[in-house]
Amino acid sequence: MDEDDVPALFNQRVTLSYDGYGFAGFQAQDKDKGRTIQDEVEAALGRLHGDAFIRIEGSGRTDQGVHALGQVISFRVPRLWPENELARALNSTLPKDIRAMASSPVAPGFHARRSAVSKHYRYLLDVGETQHAVRRRYAGHTGFKLEREVLDRVAALFVGRQDFASLRNAGTDVKTTVREVKRSEVRWEDSTMIFDVEADGFLRRMVRAMVGGLIAAGRGAVTVEQLATALESHDRSAWPAPAGPEGLYLVSVRY
After folding, report:
1. How many beta carbons lie within 10 A of that of residue 124, not counting itself?
2. Residue 225 and residue 150 share a domain
3. pLDDT tens track for 157-181
4. Residue 205, domain CATH
5. Does the reported pTM lie above 0.85?
6. Residue 26 lies in a domain
7. Residue 30 a catalytic site member
8. What is the DSSP-derived secondary structure letter of residue 37?
9. Would 153 be classed as within a structural domain?
10. Which residue range is the domain that position 52 belongs to?
11. The domain that contains 35 carries what CATH number?
12. Minimal CA–CA distance to 17: which of 255, 251, 244, 245?
């Protein structure tokens, strides 16, 4: 093919919201493992572009059952879509548990993951003897009473640039386990604990491990000092078990 015959490709950015229940996660995988966000979005983009295969890149690979309010994806398409027009077109063909909230053309060098400066995750944890049935897919739950002052002290342990190897998911292959946490805060709405954390990047299941530490210390199973020692040990076996995925949300990505 002559170089002049190669179609121009336009870099696009889309912000997604999705209900993670019923998905095997963001990343495409074997079809027998279940639906994925990537498969559904790529199929929708293909339908809008003459069945062309369009590969998307996400800002992060959320796990099975994890939700998103502001997942960002980028990809190249053979058509220039004005701001938000692609989002509207996608919503006409995407399943109802995935919504395109915004879209825009971006510079050729923009990449949803590599261009990100930080990501903001939120975890919702219902605290009480019995969780409302309608909340079971969208919030974690513990029947233990949690000491709020202790939770604040644990959240403060995570702030700063440090090695989070103790919170690393087993089998994860990364170049470094050092991350910089810019914000780590606990607040409450009635009996629901809301944990907000922002960092330049996260290890797989790192936020869920953080919440596991919050729960363990908040109910008195470990002390804050023991968690601090476990964090410094860089030993995953020294850290409490992670919380479940249902309470976790990718809120936004900063560029």
Report:
1. 20
2. yes
3. 999 999 999 999 876 778 899 999 9
4. 3.30.70.660
5. yes
6. yes
7. no
8. H
9. yes
10. 6-105
11. 3.30.70.580
12. 251
